[in-house]
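Exercise 3.2. Students should predict the tertiary structure of the chain below and write it as structure tokens, then compare their answer with the key that follows.

Predict this chain's 3D structure.
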Amino acid sequence: MFGAGGGTSSYEELRETADLIILWGSNARDAHPIFFHHLLKAVHRGAKLYVVDPRRTASAQWADLWLGLDVGTDIPLANAIAREVITAGLVNEEFVARATTCYDAYRESVEPWTLDEAERVTGVPADAIRELAHAWGNSRYPQMCWTLGITEHHNAVDNVLALINLSLLVGGVGRHGTGLQPLRGQNNVQGGGDMGAIPNKLPGFQDVEDDALRAKFDAAWGVTIPPKYGLHMTDMFEAIEEGTFSALYVIGENPAQSEADQTRARKLLSSLDCLVVQDIFRTKTAEMADVVLPASASWAETEGTVTSSERRVQRVRKALEPPGDARDDVAIVYELAQRLGVDLGSPRPEDVWNEVRTLSPMHAGMSYKRLEELGGIQWPCWDETHPGDQFLHGRLWDNVVKNPAPFTPVKHSPPVDVLDAEFPLRLTTGRRLESFNTGVQTGGFSSPLHVGGEALLVSPEDGARYGLRDGGRALVTSRRGAVEAPVAFDNNLRPGLAFMSLHFPDLVEVNVLTIDATDPKSGTAEFKATAIRVEAIA
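Answer key:
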């Protein structure tokens, strides 16, 4: 919407100023505990917290109101909130007229979503929708926060646009204390995108199809960059299936475990002519590789920078030498380039960073020295006198806005994996506080934080309906495969909804079940909405 993927405000603003915070599709208490620490300070200060999530998560237990919607009905709920804000006369009319476009089309698009219709489709009581809408419309400093509960759907981009629309309605962006916070799923996801590890951007979110921008990189690197977008991961797997993609170099990623429809993903990976994996542990993907390059990418064994969800770039400092034959990621990439006949220059992390600063204007003022002195800087930071911008898009509050933000009407599109008599239960996946992603970094040792490994969480009502026993085992089947899993009853789950995480692949390979229906705009798969059936195992 705004040209660069990054949170528009700061944790400080959330902590010290925000008066209303929405956590939408985000169990930040478990998945983003450092961020949640700041959020709790806001709650203790008196800020209102509303949580929108199919589960009554650990985060929802701190909320003034939890809106437990049915999986995949985020757009109807957002559109109904918008309609109520409009009907109640709570729109920031001055901001909308000056700083946005397409408002009339948007207002018309949400008109069918009455409170009663939204309750029918989403399962959220009309009174709860009304309460949130009025709180949102009357808030002076609203903050909208979301994560994978919004983006791991086949209509992920539309889900995000629905939330941005809500913020535009009330002038909730571009002003101190307000903001949009897309919380990143893993450490340095933000930094990866900032550095150009996405198929349509060069470092600093500079469009690869822009001839002038591309020429700058061509000159610096002594190459000719193709003037077209590359492939994201979903595209890569489709290309493997079509036979037009035959080699893959994987750094710090575990697609054999993390991709939806895991059986298909592993079949395609095994068909490659060459698979190279560079990682700190022997992942499921590394087990399939032709070549494994042991890396020292752990937080204590490398130098460099890391970027958080609030766009803050911070220094990472080496404390330990890498074990055995492991090498720093940068050193591996540089030596590989040399063996391919290309000299990339200095492999020192600081020199690499300084090259970034010469090519990415939004990082230009972030020398290692300044990062050390200031304890981190938020981008953009245009020169070495600039402090970094605490919040973005202040231009929307100028007297004359040159590039207004567009409202984007979005339509409801239910989950691809439909529920029916054969597969009557909805499985949603997510993270747990005690472990991390595919279990690579947290699963290989004994720890008191581990709470017995993976389990299929169901409501007691569903347990009784399907003959399951708390502490027993179940066969969980989807349209793509089946796994066995321990069963645990969870009173925070509504009937009809089940939950598992991806953290314990050696116990339960959850992604055997999930569907690889993807958003054509973002390439993200619909991990959050799988249709399953469950059967008790004696």
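Discussion points: Residues 189-378 form a domain with the Rossmann fold fold (CATH 3.40.50.740). The longest helix spans residues 74-87.
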